[in-house]
Design brief:
The protein is an alpha/beta fold. 44% of the residues lie in helices and 19% in strands. It contains 13 helices and seven strands. The N and C termini lie far apart (44 Å).
Amino acid sequence: MKTSTDTLTGVRDHYADVARKAEDCSGDLKEGAQSRARQMGEEVAAAVHGAERVASLPKAAVSSCRGCADSVGRAALQPGETVLDLGSGGGADALIAAQQVGSTVYVYGLDMTDEMLALAARNAEEAQVTNVEFLKGHIEDIPLPNRSVDAVLSNCVLNFSANKRSVLREAFRVLRPGGRIIISDIVSLAPIPTEAYDALCSYLGCLNGMSSLEEYQALFESVGFERVVASQTTVYSYARLEEKALARGREDQFAPLKGLASAIDGVSGSVIFEAQKPEA
Protein backbone atom coordinates (compact mmCIF):
# COMPACT_ATOMS: atom_id res chain seq x y z
CA MET A 1 0.00 0.00 0.00
CA LYS A 2 1.38 3.42 -0.97
CA THR A 3 2.04 5.93 1.79
CA SER A 4 1.75 9.71 1.47
CA THR A 5 5.57 9.80 1.31
CA ASP A 6 5.55 7.37 -1.61
CA THR A 7 2.97 9.51 -3.39
CA LEU A 8 4.97 12.69 -2.79
CA THR A 9 8.12 11.06 -4.16
CA GLY A 10 6.22 9.84 -7.21
CA VAL A 11 4.81 13.30 -7.92
CA ARG A 12 8.25 14.89 -7.50
CA ASP A 13 9.89 12.35 -9.83
CA HIS A 14 7.16 12.79 -12.43
CA TYR A 15 7.46 16.57 -12.54
CA ALA A 16 11.24 16.43 -12.53
CA ASP A 17 10.89 14.37 -15.71
CA VAL A 18 8.41 16.87 -17.17
CA ALA A 19 10.89 19.68 -16.49
CA ARG A 20 13.77 17.82 -18.17
CA LYS A 21 11.71 17.08 -21.27
CA ALA A 22 10.32 20.61 -21.50
CA GLU A 23 13.73 22.23 -21.24
CA ASP A 24 15.03 20.57 -24.41
CA CYS A 25 12.93 22.73 -26.72
CA SER A 26 15.45 23.46 -29.46
CA GLY A 27 15.15 22.00 -32.92
CA ASP A 28 12.37 19.86 -34.36
CA LEU A 29 10.22 17.62 -32.24
CA LYS A 30 11.53 14.08 -32.05
CA GLU A 31 9.44 10.94 -31.92
CA GLY A 32 8.80 9.33 -28.56
CA ALA A 33 7.99 10.25 -25.00
CA GLN A 34 9.83 13.58 -25.05
CA SER A 35 7.92 14.77 -28.10
CA ARG A 36 4.56 13.71 -26.59
CA ALA A 37 5.36 15.38 -23.27
CA ARG A 38 6.21 18.68 -24.94
CA GLN A 39 3.18 18.49 -27.22
CA MET A 40 0.98 17.80 -24.21
CA GLY A 41 2.27 20.94 -22.51
CA GLU A 42 1.61 23.04 -25.58
CA GLU A 43 -1.92 21.68 -25.91
CA VAL A 44 -2.66 22.25 -22.22
CA ALA A 45 -1.28 25.79 -22.32
CA ALA A 46 -3.33 26.72 -25.37
CA ALA A 47 -6.50 25.15 -23.98
CA VAL A 48 -6.16 26.64 -20.50
CA HIS A 49 -4.70 30.08 -21.18
CA GLY A 50 -5.40 30.62 -24.88
CA ALA A 51 -2.83 30.44 -27.65
CA GLU A 52 -2.50 34.23 -27.88
CA ARG A 53 -1.70 34.66 -24.18
CA VAL A 54 1.03 32.00 -24.13
CA ALA A 55 2.61 33.04 -27.44
CA SER A 56 4.96 35.44 -25.66
CA LEU A 57 6.08 32.92 -23.03
CA PRO A 58 9.36 30.97 -23.30
CA LYS A 59 8.93 27.64 -25.07
CA ALA A 60 9.99 25.66 -22.02
CA ALA A 61 7.37 27.39 -19.87
CA VAL A 62 4.70 26.38 -22.36
CA SER A 63 6.00 22.84 -22.83
CA SER A 64 5.96 22.22 -19.08
CA CYS A 65 2.36 23.40 -18.62
CA ARG A 66 0.07 21.02 -16.78
CA GLY A 67 -3.34 22.13 -15.54
CA CYS A 68 -7.07 21.90 -15.99
CA ALA A 69 -8.50 25.44 -16.01
CA ASP A 70 -7.51 29.10 -16.16
CA SER A 71 -7.35 30.18 -12.51
CA VAL A 72 -5.02 33.10 -13.29
CA GLY A 73 -7.44 34.46 -15.88
CA ARG A 74 -10.40 34.06 -13.54
CA ALA A 75 -8.53 35.96 -10.81
CA ALA A 76 -8.80 39.26 -12.73
CA LEU A 77 -5.56 40.42 -11.13
CA GLN A 78 -5.06 44.15 -10.71
CA PRO A 79 -1.87 46.25 -10.83
CA GLY A 80 -0.22 46.38 -7.43
CA GLU A 81 -1.51 43.03 -6.14
CA THR A 82 0.92 40.54 -4.62
CA VAL A 83 0.24 36.99 -5.82
CA LEU A 84 1.16 33.44 -4.76
CA ASP A 85 0.94 30.53 -7.22
CA LEU A 86 0.82 27.14 -5.50
CA GLY A 87 2.56 24.41 -7.48
CA SER A 88 4.11 26.84 -9.95
CA GLY A 89 5.91 24.25 -12.08
CA GLY A 90 7.72 25.76 -15.05
CA GLY A 91 6.32 29.18 -14.20
CA ALA A 92 3.75 29.84 -16.94
CA ASP A 93 0.93 30.92 -14.62
CA ALA A 94 3.28 33.03 -12.47
CA LEU A 95 4.75 34.76 -15.53
CA ILE A 96 1.27 35.59 -16.85
CA ALA A 97 0.29 36.91 -13.41
CA ALA A 98 3.45 39.03 -13.22
CA GLN A 99 2.54 40.74 -16.49
CA GLN A 100 -0.84 41.69 -15.04
CA VAL A 101 0.15 43.05 -11.62
CA GLY A 102 3.02 45.25 -12.76
CA SER A 103 6.68 45.44 -11.83
CA THR A 104 6.29 47.14 -8.44
CA VAL A 105 5.02 43.99 -6.65
CA TYR A 106 6.02 40.34 -6.52
CA VAL A 107 4.46 37.16 -7.77
CA TYR A 108 5.66 34.17 -5.77
CA GLY A 109 5.70 30.68 -7.22
CA LEU A 110 5.90 27.75 -4.81
CA ASP A 111 7.07 24.30 -5.89
CA MET A 112 8.77 21.31 -4.26
CA THR A 113 10.68 20.05 -7.31
CA ASP A 114 14.23 21.33 -7.81
CA GLU A 115 14.14 20.75 -11.57
CA MET A 116 10.92 22.74 -11.96
CA LEU A 117 12.24 25.58 -9.79
CA ALA A 118 15.40 25.81 -11.88
CA LEU A 119 13.39 25.70 -15.09
CA ALA A 120 11.00 28.39 -13.86
CA ALA A 121 13.88 30.68 -12.92
CA ARG A 122 15.40 30.28 -16.37
CA ASN A 123 12.03 30.95 -17.99
CA ALA A 124 11.63 34.15 -15.98
CA GLU A 125 15.10 35.28 -17.02
CA GLU A 126 14.38 34.53 -20.68
CA ALA A 127 11.07 36.41 -20.47
CA GLN A 128 12.88 39.31 -18.75
CA VAL A 129 10.37 39.24 -15.90
CA THR A 130 12.04 40.52 -12.74
CA ASN A 131 9.12 40.60 -10.28
CA VAL A 132 8.77 36.82 -9.87
CA GLU A 133 10.38 34.77 -7.12
CA PHE A 134 10.21 30.98 -7.08
CA LEU A 135 10.30 29.39 -3.63
CA LYS A 136 10.98 25.79 -2.66
CA GLY A 137 8.49 24.25 -0.28
CA HIS A 138 5.28 22.34 0.19
CA ILE A 139 1.83 23.76 -0.36
CA GLU A 140 0.80 22.48 3.08
CA ASP A 141 3.50 24.67 4.69
CA ILE A 142 3.85 27.91 2.74
CA PRO A 143 7.16 29.76 3.39
CA LEU A 144 5.62 33.24 3.50
CA PRO A 145 4.54 35.39 6.45
CA ASN A 146 0.97 35.96 7.61
CA ARG A 147 -1.14 38.41 5.61
CA SER A 148 1.48 38.90 2.89
CA VAL A 149 -0.40 38.33 -0.39
CA ASP A 150 -3.58 39.59 -2.05
CA ALA A 151 -4.37 36.54 -4.18
CA VAL A 152 -3.55 32.84 -4.03
CA LEU A 153 -3.77 30.86 -7.27
CA SER A 154 -3.37 27.20 -8.11
CA ASN A 155 -3.90 25.23 -11.29
CA CYS A 156 -4.76 21.57 -10.73
CA VAL A 157 -2.26 20.93 -7.91
CA LEU A 158 -4.31 20.35 -4.77
CA ASN A 159 -5.39 16.96 -6.15
CA PHE A 160 -1.85 15.76 -5.31
CA SER A 161 -2.08 16.76 -1.66
CA ALA A 162 -2.90 14.28 1.07
CA ASN A 163 -4.35 17.12 3.16
CA LYS A 164 -6.30 19.72 1.20
CA ARG A 165 -7.54 21.32 4.40
CA SER A 166 -3.95 22.11 5.43
CA VAL A 167 -3.32 23.71 2.04
CA LEU A 168 -6.41 25.89 2.32
CA ARG A 169 -5.60 26.77 5.93
CA GLU A 170 -2.13 27.93 4.88
CA ALA A 171 -3.58 29.92 1.98
CA PHE A 172 -5.97 31.58 4.42
CA ARG A 173 -3.05 32.44 6.71
CA VAL A 174 -0.91 34.16 4.06
CA LEU A 175 -3.81 36.12 2.54
CA ARG A 176 -4.45 39.66 3.64
CA PRO A 177 -7.95 40.44 4.97
CA GLY A 178 -10.26 40.65 1.97
CA GLY A 179 -7.80 38.66 -0.15
CA ARG A 180 -9.01 35.91 -2.45
CA ILE A 181 -8.14 32.41 -3.54
CA ILE A 182 -8.79 31.05 -7.02
CA ILE A 183 -7.92 27.44 -7.69
CA SER A 184 -8.77 24.91 -10.35
CA ASP A 185 -8.92 21.22 -9.57
CA ILE A 186 -10.49 17.91 -10.53
CA VAL A 187 -13.57 16.81 -8.60
CA SER A 188 -16.19 14.09 -8.70
CA LEU A 189 -19.49 15.40 -10.04
CA ALA A 190 -21.45 12.24 -9.28
CA PRO A 191 -20.87 9.02 -7.33
CA ILE A 192 -18.11 6.91 -8.89
CA PRO A 193 -18.70 3.15 -8.81
CA THR A 194 -16.24 1.25 -6.64
CA GLU A 195 -14.89 -0.81 -9.51
CA ALA A 196 -13.81 2.34 -11.38
CA TYR A 197 -12.78 4.67 -8.56
CA ASP A 198 -9.10 3.79 -8.09
CA ALA A 199 -8.36 3.52 -11.80
CA LEU A 200 -10.05 6.84 -12.60
CA CYS A 201 -8.29 8.64 -9.74
CA SER A 202 -4.96 7.24 -10.87
CA TYR A 203 -5.50 8.22 -14.50
CA LEU A 204 -6.56 11.77 -13.61
CA GLY A 205 -3.72 12.24 -11.13
CA CYS A 206 -5.90 12.39 -8.02
CA LEU A 207 -3.36 10.33 -6.11
CA ASN A 208 -5.02 10.74 -2.72
CA GLY A 209 -8.57 10.24 -3.92
CA MET A 210 -11.02 12.59 -5.56
CA SER A 211 -13.05 15.05 -3.49
CA SER A 212 -16.64 15.72 -4.47
CA LEU A 213 -17.76 19.21 -5.39
CA GLU A 214 -19.67 19.49 -2.12
CA GLU A 215 -16.75 18.21 -0.02
CA TYR A 216 -14.43 20.76 -1.60
CA GLN A 217 -16.79 23.65 -0.93
CA ALA A 218 -17.14 22.51 2.69
CA LEU A 219 -13.34 22.52 3.07
CA PHE A 220 -13.15 26.18 2.05
CA GLU A 221 -15.80 27.12 4.58
CA SER A 222 -14.21 25.01 7.33
CA VAL A 223 -11.01 27.10 7.32
CA GLY A 224 -12.85 30.43 7.29
CA PHE A 225 -13.30 31.39 3.65
CA GLU A 226 -16.55 33.03 2.59
CA ARG A 227 -18.33 33.71 -0.70
CA VAL A 228 -17.27 30.32 -2.03
CA VAL A 229 -18.24 29.92 -5.68
CA ALA A 230 -17.61 26.86 -7.87
CA SER A 231 -17.67 27.13 -11.66
CA GLN A 232 -17.60 23.91 -13.63
CA THR A 233 -15.26 24.16 -16.61
CA THR A 234 -15.04 20.65 -18.06
CA VAL A 235 -16.92 17.36 -17.77
CA TYR A 236 -14.80 14.31 -18.56
CA SER A 237 -16.68 11.94 -20.81
CA TYR A 238 -15.33 8.45 -21.42
CA ALA A 239 -14.79 9.31 -25.09
CA ARG A 240 -12.81 12.46 -24.21
CA LEU A 241 -10.58 10.62 -21.74
CA GLU A 242 -9.91 7.82 -24.22
CA GLU A 243 -9.17 10.27 -27.03
CA LYS A 244 -6.62 12.13 -24.93
CA ALA A 245 -4.99 8.87 -23.84
CA LEU A 246 -4.48 7.83 -27.45
CA ALA A 247 -3.21 11.25 -28.51
CA ARG A 248 -0.69 11.44 -25.67
CA GLY A 249 0.60 7.88 -25.73
CA ARG A 250 -1.05 6.96 -22.42
CA GLU A 251 -2.85 3.84 -23.59
CA ASP A 252 -1.29 1.74 -20.83
CA GLN A 253 -2.50 4.14 -18.15
CA PHE A 254 -5.98 4.19 -19.63
CA ALA A 255 -6.18 0.39 -20.01
CA PRO A 256 -7.74 -0.25 -16.53
CA LEU A 257 -10.67 1.97 -17.55
CA LYS A 258 -11.46 0.03 -20.71
CA GLY A 259 -14.98 -1.33 -20.63
CA LEU A 260 -16.03 1.02 -17.81
CA ALA A 261 -17.64 3.69 -19.97
CA SER A 262 -20.97 3.57 -18.15
CA ALA A 263 -19.21 3.90 -14.80
CA ILE A 264 -16.97 6.90 -15.57
CA ASP A 265 -18.82 8.84 -18.25
CA GLY A 266 -19.48 12.32 -16.89
CA VAL A 267 -18.75 11.56 -13.22
CA SER A 268 -15.69 13.80 -12.96
CA GLY A 269 -14.50 17.12 -14.28
CA SER A 270 -12.57 20.29 -13.62
CA VAL A 271 -13.88 23.16 -11.52
CA ILE A 272 -12.61 26.63 -10.60
CA PHE A 273 -13.22 27.58 -6.98
CA GLU A 274 -13.22 31.21 -5.88
CA ALA A 275 -13.41 32.34 -2.26
CA GLN A 276 -12.56 35.33 -0.11
CA LYS A 277 -10.93 35.85 3.26
CA PRO A 278 -13.15 38.03 5.45
CA GLU A 279 -12.22 41.71 5.67
CA ALA A 280 -12.06 41.70 9.45
